[in-house]
TrEMBL record:
Name the record gives this protein: Glycosyltransferase involved in cell wall bisynthesis
Native species: Micromonospora citrea
Listed Pfam families: Glycos_transf_1
Keywords, in A-Z order: Transferase
GO molecular function: glycosyltransferase activity
Domain Glycosyl transferase family: 187-320
SUPFAM superfamilies (alphabetical): UDP-Glycosyltransferase/glycogen phosphorylase
Length: 351
């Protein structure tokens, strides 16, 4: 079980890896985006409605959709959840073991300070209602796994449940095995990667590059593109946009970057691990997933500040770091490690 399935995204990568562990299993999603090439997915009835085009409008209906997903019953159900997938019920608790891998309790209803999509004061009452629904409809879940200690803490705070921590899989070997021409780049620019939406702080990334006096490459796509391009035109350093780079191009960009700028509070963050697999250090905030993926002072630098000057000061310290040490650290987040830990967790919960 997964929420909506997009063309790209860390949660989709995790879902694929979980599905590979149980290749005989059915794979359900709310809907699949039109540009997602994944095959073999069973979409919910929500996919046949216009609501598939608006996650925010569809959100209140999602618990109902998960509860009316199918008349089939299963011995084991594994959900990949960042909204309401963990509320799905395809059998009684006495006969069905339901396990949930949690990317985050839905930020827009539980943590609106992190994600502005739920911060409108007019949504405070609907948010409280959805919180109650979220807890009430998930009491049948036998076991939770969290993608980070950050998420483990939120599961305990919001749902009053314990969870094991299993960090997501990252294809670190592929990123490390770049062609020789990519590996000898001069590393003369800073890099920002991700979806161009407000909470990712790409405006701050541009300001950091200006304060550091270094060229910047922004890779990704999103609704803030026009606004970011306007900021880039006024910037005192070159800012290049790489819109929807493919995987090979993204690897080239990681290998050519002086550092990845990641001033965002993420639940885990696969992108910083991909960068480190390429020997590229990360400069970001001392919170969330970066506390688990970056070794401060060894594979990057973390700061509590959102002042561009403070981040720029860390850019000037990058020569203190070893690319070999950075790449070696990233190997601890491999798909093989994920498969081993997930298999052990599933086996333990199904005994």
């Amino acid at each position: 079980m997964h929420e909506w399935f997009g063309a790209t995204g860390g949660s989709e990568q995790v879902f694929r890896q979980i599905a590979d562990l149980v290749p005989h299993g059915e794979r359900f999603v709310l809907w699949k985006d039109h540009d997602a090439g994944e095959t073999g997915l069973r979409e919910s009835w929500l996919a046949r409605t216009p609501l598939r085009h608006s996650k925010a409008v569809a959100l209140p209906l999602m618990p109902l959709v998960w509860r009316t997903l199918s008349r089939q019953r299963f011995d084991v159900v594994i959900s990949s959840s960042h909204a309401f997938a963990h509320t799905v019920k395809l059998g009684a608790p006495e006969t069905t073991t339901h396990l949930s891998y949690v990317h985050a309790p839905a930020r827009y209803i539980w943590s609106p300070a992190f994600d502005g999509r739920g911060s409108n004061p007019l949504l405070s009452v609907p948010r409280r209602i959805l919180q109650g629904v979220d807890v009430r409809l998930s009491d049948h879940v036998r076991g939770y796994a969290a993608n980070s200690r950050e998420v483990q803490t939120r599961i305990r705070r919001y749902w009053r449940r314990d969870a094991v921590v299993i960090n997501p899989p990252v294809d670190v070997e592929w990123f490390a095995a770049a062609p020789p021409a990519d590996r000898v780049q001069a590393r003369e620019y800073l890099l920002g990667v991700g979806r161009w939406i407000p909470y990712k702080n790409f405006d701050l990334i541009i300001a950091i590059a200006e304060a550091a006096g270094m060229p910047l490459v922004l890779a990704g796509s999103g609704p803030q593109e026009t606004q970011l391009r306007q900021l880039a035109e006024r910037a005192n350093v070159p800012v290049v946009f790489e819109v929807r780079p493919d995987r090979e191009r993204l690897r080239q960009l990681f290998w050519g970057a002086r550092a990845l700028l990641f001033p965002v509070h993420e639940d885990f963050g696969i992108i910083p691990v991909e960068a480190q697999a390429c020997g590229t250090p990360v400069i970001g905030l001392r919170r969330g997933g970066l506390l688990e993926t970056v070794v401060d002072g060894e594979t990057g630098f973390l700061t509590d500040s959102t002042d561009p000057a403070d981040h720029a000061a860390l850019v000037r310290r990058l020569d203190e770091l070893s690319a070999e040490r950075i790449a070696a650290h990233a190997t601890g987040f491999s798909p093989a490690r994920f498969a081993t830990e997930m298999t052990a967790w599933i086996d333990d919960e199904c005994r």
